Amino acid sequence: MEPLSALAIAASIVQFVDFGNRLLSRTWDVYKRPDAAAQELTTIAEELSMFSSRVRESFKGLRHDEKQSQPSETESQLSRLCDECDVITSDFQTVLRQIRRRHSGRSAQDKVTRFVLAIMWSDTKIAVMKERLDILRRRVMTAVLFCLWHDSKRTEQWELHFSKQLEHVTSIISRVDEAVGRLSKEPPSLAALQEIAPTSRITGDVITALHGESSEASQIRDELVQHIWRRGWQRHDPMTAPTFSHTHMVDLRLIARTICDGLTFDAIRGREEAVIEPFKKTFEWIFNRNPKQQDETPAWSSFPEWLEGSSTAPYWIAGKPGSGKSTIMKFITGHPSLSRHLSCWAESSDLIAVRYYAWNAGLSMQKSWEGLMRTILFQSLEQRPDLIPLVSPRRWALFQVLKATNRFPPWELWEVQESFQALLTQCWASIKIFLLIDGLDEFDLAPGEVVRRIRDLTETSASSLKVCLASRPWTEFDDAYGENPMLRMDSLTQDDMAVFVEGKFRDNKGYTELMQLYPTQMTQLTIDIVSKAKGVYLWVSIVVNELLEAMTEGRTIADLQATLKSLPSDISDLYDTIWSRIPSHHRADASMMIQVVKVACGTLSWFTLWLAEECQSSKVDVHTLSPEIRYYARKALRRRLATRTRGILELTYCSWTWNDGYAGFSHRTARDWAKQPSVWQLLCSAYKGDPYLTLLHAEMVLMSDKETNLINHSNTSFWHAVTRTLFYASQVRSPAHEGELVTILDAFDEAATQSYRLAQDNWPIYLRLRKPTDHWSSKQDSGGHRLALHNTFLGMAAQFSLLPYIRAKFAPNRSLLTQRATAKSIGLLECAVLGFNYYMAKDLSHQNVSGVPLTIWYSQRLDTVRYLLNQGVKGDQANGHLCVVNLKSQVRQLVLDSAGSEAEYYVQASELLQMGGGLKGVSKSLLNHIRFGKSKGRS
Question: Which is an annotated Pfam family here (predicted)?
Answer without folding.
Answer: NPHP3_N
